[in-house]
Design brief:
This protein is mainly α and 258 residues long. The chain is 63% helix and 5% strand. It contains eleven helices and five strands; from the N terminus they run βααβααβααββααααα. The strands form two sheets. A three-stranded antiparallel β-sheet has the order 3-5-4. Strands 1-2 form a two-stranded parallel ribbon. The two termini are 37 Å apart.
Length: 258
């Protein structure tokens, strides 16, 4: 992506004000793209264009020393925030960096027909981690992503017609003991809740949820927020595109959340 300043612009603004202007102007733009069924790289580029148009309205942005600093520390994070706000509405503020990375990976990284999980090439992973203020090594240590230096993948329930087999495989891949779990992130909590939801009776599930809420209150609350955003996204796409046209129809995690 090549960023150039438009000819004839004038005036100056702070990077803070440029960020706020981009949020105010571009959330509705991203929401419209989503309502029209635009996801993956098209959603990213469409939102990026709107954000860039706001940042390049001025000749000078106070507080910026280089173009690379502008793009990496402000443009990409603003694009991520715009898309997350378009997806989560007032729930956005309750998502931490790890949840934001997982949510945007689901929305922006498309899964190939035969892929069990979403794959990241090196450049995509860099953009995603910068945009969500994450360190890739930390994401790997928390078992949010896995792989090698050339290609990483999202640790999500693998594609399968067997819901229980899929979520069980995921917990095994993450090294989570289903009976006596040690939870290290919001994403661990989300996946554990998905497993309990399809393996326990209603009363057993309620008891387990209360135990998790007591032991990990912050992780629990944020996991519920993330699950609600994913569920609302899936159901809204069903209404707009129908079952066959839903871009997430082959993602088993949306079925587990449902």
């Amino acid at each position: 992506i090549v960023v150039t300043w438009r000819k004839g612009v004038s005036g100056k603004t702070s990077v803070h004000d440029a960020h706020n202007n981009a949020i105010n102007q571009c959330v509705n733009h991203a929401s419209l793209l989503i309502k029209n069924g635009v996801f993956g790289i098209d959603l990213f580029v469409g939102t990026l264009g709107c954000v860039l148009s706001e940042f390049t309205k001025y000749e000078t942005i106070i507080g910026i020393k280089s173009m690379s600093e502008l793009v990496e520390k402000h443009i990409y994070p603003t694009v991520a925030e715009v898309i997350a706000r378009a997806l989560g509405g007032d729930k956005f503020g309750r998502l931490g960096n790890i949840s934001l990375f997982y949510l945007l990976s689901k929305v922006l990284v498309e899964k190939g027909g035969r892929q069990e999980r979403r794959n990241f090439d090196r450049s995509t992973l860099i953009i995603m981690s910068i945009g969500t203020h994450n360190d890739t090594k930390n994401l790997e240590n928390l078992n949010v992503i896995k792989g090698d230096s050339d290609k990483m993948y999202l640790l999500e329930p693998p594609s399968s017609k067997d819901e229980l087999g899929s979520i069980s495989t995921l917990l095994q891949d993450k090294g989570i003991n289903k009976d006596n779990p040690k939870i290290n992130s919001v994403i661990d909590m989300l996946h554990l809740l998905e497993y309990y939801a399809i393996t326990l009776s209603r009363q057993e599930f309620t008891n387990k949820v209360e135990q998790l809420r007591t032991n990990y209150p912050t992780f629990y609350d944020e996991a519920i927020t993330l699950a609600n955003i994913l569920y609302n996204l899936y159901t809204s796409m069903l209404k707009i595109s129908g079952k066959e046209g839903n871009p997430f129809k082959n993602d088993i995690e949306f079925k587990l959340i449902e």
